[in-house]
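Problem 12. The chain below contains 160 residues. Write out its predicted structure in token notation.
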Amino acid sequence: MASIQDYMEALRREAGDALFPLALRQGEMIGELLDKKKEQELQHAKDNKTRLGLLDSWWGGYIAPEVKNLIIILAEKRELHLIHKLTAKREEQKKVIVTTAISLSEETKEWLRKEIQETHEVGEFQFKEDKKLIGGAVIRIGDRVVDVSLKKTLQNMYSA
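Solution.
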């Protein structure tokens, strides 16, 4: 059985990085609007064409095709309950953790916030120190990690 994380990765691949936040919001919205009656209708529909027809009749063209596909797959596998977990996962996606070897100045922290917020929909920022990094930084945005630390660079050099 696939996890919500597996479905989210599939949605990210289908929608692309640029549209993924919008697709998540739409999935979250569907999770809020999808009552038990609609859930049962989708899960007990005879085929995916019928499921698509139901989604179109309820929400028309307001839902991206990638989100419709996700909902259809979840309904087909009788896992529509996972759509309600998108809200929690979306909140995780918003958290940013910046880890550096030394303490950053408030000016540098503010610059990083602005740079990241220009390209990502994020919420909470957390700044940490880890002397083991030696230099550079590790930036985690939700489940994505960018590691530009000196420690990682050295590890890559020695493993090559």
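Discussion. The CA atoms of residues 22 and 64 lie 9 Å apart. Students who got a different answer should revisit the alignment rule from Section 12.3.
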